[in-house]
C-alpha cells in the first residue's frame, strides 16, 4: 500500500478515491461535449490459447438466423452484437518446422512470419499498433497490453522460438514486442496515475514542468549515447527515445479523468477472479477514455492452465489446457475442451455485456456499439495445430461501421486471409495497413 | 472420412522428418541436433584453419527485473522491489538476461519513472538511506552539497566515473526547483530521479572507440567490472570492484581471477543459484507446478519450498567451491528439513530449515535427478512423464535437443490406456515406428527414474505393476535407477560441454555463435570444457576462465 500511495502522491493522484468500493463508483463521462458523431471508437483484440473445439464452435448454418452452436451458447443474448467468422486462414503464422503455438501467437494480429530464433526476434507490426498510429495520441495511453500470466520462469517457450513470440501479441515494430501487464493492481495504477483531484492548477503546472525537465535531461543523455553506439545498439536507444517522447506527451496533457476509478483491486487473485477483474479494468479503461486500443491474452502460448473450478463428466478439470488440447479425438478430452471453451465464451459474454451496459453520448448509445472486439486463437484445432479454419468472433458495431448478428463462412478453398479481416477491424477507427500478408479489407463484415 | 486421410498423411510426413532428426542425433559421436554443440568445429570456422579472432558483439543490455531490483538495493539499501511490478522479461535461449531480447516499451519506461520517484522519495526521507546518500547539510550548504551528492551517486548509479559535463545538466535540474522556490531538497530529488531514468542507469553501456569498426578491443575497466558483477551477482559492482576498476588492475588475468574468487565467496553470488541455475536447471519452475490435489493430497507450499531449497543449497555448495560441479549429480549428501525427509522416507533431521544430511546408500537419493524439485517440474499434474524427464536430461545436461512432437500426434493417449505400468503403456505407444525414433531416445532415460512419482516420492510400484527402473542412454549405455544414470552423465564429456555452453551464454548475455566464420565462441567453449574436465569440474575455476576469456574481456563494433 505504501508504494502505491507514494507513487500516486508524486504523480498527483488522489487518495480520496481509495475509500470507495472498487469499480462501483463509476460516474458517467461528463467532461467532453460529446456528440454522436465524434464519440470515440475502440478496439479490443482478445487472444485465447490452444485453439478452440471447432466442431462445437462452428455454426452449422450461415447468415443472420444461424443456429447458435453449443460452445457459443453463453453469447446467445448478445447474438445481435457479434458476428461469427469461419474459414479464415493465417498462413504466415505457420512455423518453420514445429512451434505452432509460438508462431501462431506471434502471428495472431501481425499476420507476419516469426523469425525462428531464441534471440534474433523479428516479426512485424500488429493490427492494434496500426490503430495506435491513427488514434493513439487521442488518449493518455496510446494502447494497453493486458494478460493473465507473465509466463513460465524456466525452459523453452515453444520449440526453439524465443519467449517473446509466445507471450506478446502486440508489436510496435518487427523487433519491439509490447509486453503485457498481468497484475490487476499494476494495471489500475497505470490507468489512473496522474489523476489528480486535489492539486491546484498551479501545482499541476509546476509538476508538469518538473517532469518535462527530467525527461529533457534524460533525452539528452540518450541523444548523446546515440552518437556513440553502432547500428544494433542505436535501435535500443531509439526504443528508449520513443518511450521518452511518449511520456513527454502524457505529461503535457493534463490528466482529465471523467470518471472515478474507485479503489485499486486486491493483489494475488485466483485465475477466474483475475480474468473477471481484468475484464472490468478493460471496460473501465475504455469508459474513462484512458485508452482506445487494448490487447488481452488469456494466458500465454502453450498455456497449461488447469480448470479445477470446472467439471467435465463429473470430475474437476485438473489436467493442463495444452495437454488436453492434444485431444487425439478422444471424447473425454473433447468434453473437457468443451467446458473450457464454454467458460472462455462466458468470459467474453461478461465483457461484452458489461460494455453494452455502459451508456455513451447524448443519444444514449453504448460502449459496445462504439467498439470492435476481435477474438481468435494461435491455432484452430489444438490437436492439428492448423492455421486455417480459424475460430473468429467479431463483436461490437465499430461505431456503426459493422453489421453484426451473422455467421459468415468463407469457403476453405478461397484461403481468405485473416489479415484482411483485421484490416476491416482497424478500418473502423480509420486505420489502414500494410499488415502482414493483407491485401485489402474485407467488405460486408 | 476424407479428413482422416489428410490427417494421417500429415502425421506420417511430420514423423518422417522427426525420424531423420533423431536418427541423425544417434549417429555421430558428440553430434548435436541443433549444430550448436561446442567442440565439433573447434575455432577455425572456415577461416582456412586459422583460429578466429572475433569476440562477437553484445547488444546494449537493459537491466532485467532481477538486476534492477538488486541494483537499487545496493545503491540505496532499500527494501523496495519495484521491478516486481514491471512486465516479465522475455526469455531467449533459456535465460532472461539475453541483451538482444530485452526490449523497452513506453509502458516500461513509465514504470521506471514511477519506480525512480518512489525510490528517491524513500531515499530522501528514510534516515538510514538518507545518511548513505546525502553526506552533507543540504539546507545550509545548498549547491555545494547537491553537487557532491550527485557526483558520488551518479558514478555509482552509472557504474563509471562521470564528467563535469555530465553533472552540469543535473545541477541545472537542481537549479530549476530552487528557482521555483522549492529549495535544494526538491532540486536534488529531481536530479536523482533523472539519474535513475537515464539510459546510463537502465542500460549497461559498453562503448567502442569506433562503433563501425569490427576490430576487437579490450573493454574499459569499468565496463569489465559491470560485466563481471552482473554475471556473478546480478547487480552493480561493489566498492572493492570499483576500486579494482579504478586502479585498472582487472587487466591482469591473475588479479581478475582473484576478484572472481572474492566475489564467489560473497552472499551476492547466490544470484548464480537463483538466476543461472534457477533457469538452467528449472529450479525456478518449482514455484509454478500445480500437482493435482486429488492425486497428490500431500503436496503443499511447505513441501514446494523445501524441495526448491534442497536443489538451491546443493548448487550453492558448487558456487562456493565446497564441492565440484559433477557432484551436482553424484553428491552422497543432500539438504533436507523434516518435511522433505518424511517425503523421502528418511529420518527427520530435526529442523524446519533444510540442513545437510549424509545419505545412506539405501536411500535411493543423491544428486539432482533424485531430487523432488527436478522430478516434479518434469512431471504432469497427475503422473510422471518419462518423456519429459528424458527430454530434460538430454536438453539441459547433455545439450542435445529433441524436437517436440509434430501436430496431429495424440500425446495424451497413454492416459486413456489401462493396465500395466506407465512404462508398459508408453512402450506400447511406441509401436508406431515413426514416432518411436525420438521416443526411443528420450523415454528409456525417463524409465530409469520411474521409482520417483510426480512429486518425487519413492515408489516400488506403479499402480499394480512393479517398477522396472532399467534405462538406456542414447550412447547405448545401460543403467538402473537415478544414481547410476547420474554417474554416467557426470562422466560424459557432453555434460562438461553443456555446463560450459549454458554458463557461457548466461555470462555473455548472448547466444553463442558457432556458425559465423572467425567467431571465437566455439573454440573458447571447447577450451573451457577441456579445462573443466581436467580440473575435475572445478566450477570456480570455470567461472574464472570464462571471465578471463577473450570473448568476455573484449568487444568490437559493428559494420554499418
Descriptive report:
The complex is a heterodimer of chains A (about 450) and B (about 550). In chain A, helix 7 runs antiparallel to helix 8 (about 230-250). In chain A, about 35% of the residues lie in helices and about 15% in strands. With about 450 residues, chain A is an alpha/beta fold. Chain A is globular and about 65 Å long. Chain A has helices at about 1-10, 55, 100-105, 125-135, 165, 185-190, 200-225, 230-250, 270-285, 320-325, 330-355, 420-425, and strands spanning about 40-50, 80-90, 145, 170-175, 175, 295, 305-310, 315, 360, 365, 370-375, 390-395, 405-410. Chain A folds into 2 domains: about 15-195 and about 255-425, 3-Layer(aba) Sandwich (Alkaline Phosphatase, subunit A), CATH 3.40.720; about 195-255. Chain B has a domain at about 60-205. In chain B, a hairpin with a 2-residue loop joins strand 6 and strand 7 (about 465). Chain B has helices at about 1-25, 65-75, 105-125, 125-135, 140-155, 165-180, 185-195, 200, 220-230, 240-245, 255-265, 270-280, 300-320, 325-330, 340-345, 370-375, 385-395, 415, 420-430, 435-445, 480-490, 495-510, 520-535, 540-550, 550-555; strands at about 60, 205, 215-220, 335, 355-360, 460, 465, 470, 480, 555. In chain B, helix 1 (about 1-25) packs across helix 20, helix 5 (about 140-155) packs parallel to helix 7 (about 185-195) and helix 6 packs across helix 7. Chain B has about 550 residues and is mainly alpha-helical. In chain B, the strands form 5 sheets. A two-stranded antiparallel ribbon of chain B has the order 1-2. Chain B contains 25 helices and 10 strands. At the A-B interface, helix 1, helix 5, strand 5, helix 6 and helix 7 of A face helix 1, helix 3, helix 6, helix 7 and helix 8 of B.
Amino acid at each position: 500500500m505504501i508504494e502505491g500511495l507514494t507513487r500516486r502522491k508524486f504523480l498527483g493522484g488522489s487518495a480520496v478515491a481509495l475509500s470507495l468500493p472498487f469499480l462501483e463508483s463509476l460516474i458517467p463521462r461528463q467532461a467532453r461535449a460529446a456528440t454522436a458523431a465524434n464519440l470515440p471508437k475502440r478496439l479490443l483484440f482478445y487472444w485465447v490459447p490452444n485453439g478452440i473445439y471447432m466442431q462445437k464452435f462452428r455454426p452449422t448454418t450461415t447468415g443472420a438466423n444461424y443456429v447458435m452452436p453449443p460452445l457459443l451458447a453463453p453469447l446467445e443474448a448478445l447474438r445481435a452484437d457479434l458476428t461469427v467468422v469461419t474459414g479464415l486462414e493465417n498462413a504466415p503464422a505457420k512455423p518453420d518446422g514445429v512451434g505452432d503455438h509460438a508462431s501462431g501467437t506471434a502471428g495472431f494480429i501481425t499476420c507476419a512470419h516469426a523469425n525462428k530464433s531464441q534471440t534474433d526476434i523479428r516479426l512485424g507490426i500488429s493490427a492494434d499498433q496500426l490503430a495506435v498510429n491513427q488514434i493513439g495520441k487521442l488518449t493518455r495511453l496510446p494502447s494497453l497490453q493486458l494478460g493473465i500470466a507473465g509466463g513460465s520462469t524456466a525452459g523453452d517457450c515453444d520449440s526453439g522460438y524465443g519467449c517473446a513470440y509466445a507471450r506478446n501479441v502486440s508489436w510496435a515494430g518487427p523487433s519491439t514486442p509490447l509486453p503485457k501487464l498481468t497484475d490487476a493492481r499494476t494495471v489500475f495504477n497505470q490507468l489512473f496515475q496522474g489523476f489528480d483531484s486535489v492539486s491546484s492548477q498551479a501545482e499541476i503546472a509546476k509538476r508538469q514542468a518538473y517532469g518535462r525537465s527530467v525527461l529533457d535531461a534524460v533525452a539528452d543523455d540518450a541523444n548523446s549515447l546515440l552518437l556513440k553506439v553502432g547500428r544494433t545498439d542505436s535501435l535500443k536507444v531509439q526504443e528508449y527515445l520513443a518511450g521518452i517522447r511518449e511520456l513527454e506527451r502524457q505529461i503535457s496533457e493534463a490528466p482529465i479523468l471523467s470518471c472515478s476509478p474507485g479503489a485499486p483491486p486486491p493483489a494475488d487473485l485466483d485465475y477466474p477472479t483475475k480474468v473477471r477483474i481484468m475484464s472490468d479494468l478493460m471496460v473501465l479503461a475504455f469508459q474513462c477514455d484512458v485508452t482506445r486500443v487494448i490487447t488481452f491474452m488469456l494466458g500465454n502460448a502453450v498455456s497449461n492452465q488447469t480448470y479445477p473450478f470446472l467439471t467435465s463428466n463429473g470430475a474437476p478439470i485438473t489436467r493442463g489446457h495444452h495437454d488436453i488440447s492434444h485431444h487425439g479425438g478422444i471424447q473425454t478430452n473433447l468434453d473437457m475442451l468443451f467446458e473450457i471453451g464454454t467458460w472462455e465464451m462466458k468470459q467474453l459474454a461478461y465483457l461484452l455485456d458489461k460494455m453494452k451496459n455502459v451508456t455513451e453520448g447524448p443519444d444514449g448509445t453504448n460502449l459496445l456499439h462504439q467498439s470492435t472486439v476481435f477474438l481468435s486463437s494461435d491455432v484452430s484445432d489444438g490437436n492439428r495445430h492448423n492455421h486455417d479454419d480459424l475460430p473468429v468472433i467479431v463483436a461490437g458495431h465499430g461505431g456503426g461501421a459493422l453489421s453484426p448478428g451473422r455467421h459468415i463462412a468463407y469457403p476453405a478453398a478461397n484461403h481468405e486471409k485473416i489479415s484482411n479481416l483485421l484490416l476491416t477491424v482497424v478500418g473502423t477507427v480509420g486505420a489502414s495497413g500494410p499488415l502482414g500478408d493483407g491485401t485489402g479489407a474485407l467488405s460486408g463484415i | 472420412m476424407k479428413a482422416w486421410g489428410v490427417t494421417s498423411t500429415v502425421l506420417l510426413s511430420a514423423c518422417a522428418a522427426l525420424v531423420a532428426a533423431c536418427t541423425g542425433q544417434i549417429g555421430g559421436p558428440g553430434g548435436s541436433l541443433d549444430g550448436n554443440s561446442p567442440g565439433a568445429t573447434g575455432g577455425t570456422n572456415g577461416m582456412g584453419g586459422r583460429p578466429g579472432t572475433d569476440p562477437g558483439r553484445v547488444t546494449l543490455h537493459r537491466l532485467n527485473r532481477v538486476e534492477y531490483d538488486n541494483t537499487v538495493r545496493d545503491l540505496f539499501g532499500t527494501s523496495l522491489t519495484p521491478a516486481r511490478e514491471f512486465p516479465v522479461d522475455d526469455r531467449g535461449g533459456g535465460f532472461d538476461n539475453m541483451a538482444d531480447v530485452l526490449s523497452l516499451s513506453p509502458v516500461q519506461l513509465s514504470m521506471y519513472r514511477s519506480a525512480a520517484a518512489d525510490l528517491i522519495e524513500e531515499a530522501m526521507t528514510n534516515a538510514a538511506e538518507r545518511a548513505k546518500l546525502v553526506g552533507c547539510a543540504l539546507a545550509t550548504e545548498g549547491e555545494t552539497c547537491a553537487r557532491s551528492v550527485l557526483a558520488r551517486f551518479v558514478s555509482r548509479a552509472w557504474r563509471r566515473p562521470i564528467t563535469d559535463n555530465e553533472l552540469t545538466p543535473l545541477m541545472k535540474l537542481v537549479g530549476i526547483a530552487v528557482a521555483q522556490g522549492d529549495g535544494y531538497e526538491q532540486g536534488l530529488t529531481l536530479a536523482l530521479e533523472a539519474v535513475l531514468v537515464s539510459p546510463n542507469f537502465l542500460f549497461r553501456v559498453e562503448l567502442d572507440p569506433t562503433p563501425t569498426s569490427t576490430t576487437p578491443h579490450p573493454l574499459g575497466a569499468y565496463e569489465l567490472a559491470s560485466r563481471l558483477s552482473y554475471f556473478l551477482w546480478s547487480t552493480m559492482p561493489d566498492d572493492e570492484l570499483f576500486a579494482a576498476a579504478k586502479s585498472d588492475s582487472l587487466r591482469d588475468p591473475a588479479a581478475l581471477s582473484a576478484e572472481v574468487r572474492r566475489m564467489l565467496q560473497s552472499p551476492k553470488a547466490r544470484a548464480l543459484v537463483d538466476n543461472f541455475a534457477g533457469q538452467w536447471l528449472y529450479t525456478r519452475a518449482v514455484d509454478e507446478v500445480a500437482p493435482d490435489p486429488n492425486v497428490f493430497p500431500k503436496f503443499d507450499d511447505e513441501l514446494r519450498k523445501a524441495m526448491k531449497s534442497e536443489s538451491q543449497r546443493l548448487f550453492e555448495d558448487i558456487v562456493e567451491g565446497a564441492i565440484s560441479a559433477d557432484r551436482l549429480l553424484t553428491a552422497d549428501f543432500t539438504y533436507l528439513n523434516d518435511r522433505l525427509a518424511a517425503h523421502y522416507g528418511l529420518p527427520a533431521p530435526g529442523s524446519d530449515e533444510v540442513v545437510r544430511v549424509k545419505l545412506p546408500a539405501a536411500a535411493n537419493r543423491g544428486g539432482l535427478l533424485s531430487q523432488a524439485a527436478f522430478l516434479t517440474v518434469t512431471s504432469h499434474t497427475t503422473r510422471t512423464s518419462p518423456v519429459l524427464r528424458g527430454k530434460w536430461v538430454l536438453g539441459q545436461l547433455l545439450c542435445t535437443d529433441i524436437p517436440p512432437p509434430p501436430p496431429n500426434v495424440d500425446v495424451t493417449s497413454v492416459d486413456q490406456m489401462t493396465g500395466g505400468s506407465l512404462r508398459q503403456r508408453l512402450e506400447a505407444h511406441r509401436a508406431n515406428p515413426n514416432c518411436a525414433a525420438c521416443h526411443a531416445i528420450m523415454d528409456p532415460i525417463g524409465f530409469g527414474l520411474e521409482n520417483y512419482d510426480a512429486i518425487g516420492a519413492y515408489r516400488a510400484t506403479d499402480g499394480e505393476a512393479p517398477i522396472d527402473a532399467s534405462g538406456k542412454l542414447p550412447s547405448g549405455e545401460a543403467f538402473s535407477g537415478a544414481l547410476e544414470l547420474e554417474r554416467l552423465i557426470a562422466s560424459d564429456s557432453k555434460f562438461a560441454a553443456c555446463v560450459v555452453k549454458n554458463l557461457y551464454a548466461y555470462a555473455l548475455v548472448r547466444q553463442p555463435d558457432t556458425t559465423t566464420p572467425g567467431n571465437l565462441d566455439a573454440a573458447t567453449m571447447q577450451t573451457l570444457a577441456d579445462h573443466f574436465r581436467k580440473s575435475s569440474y572445478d566450477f570456480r575455476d570455470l567461472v574464472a576462465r570464462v571471465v578471463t576469456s577473450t570473448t568476455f574481456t573484449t568487444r568490437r563494433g559493428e559494420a554499418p
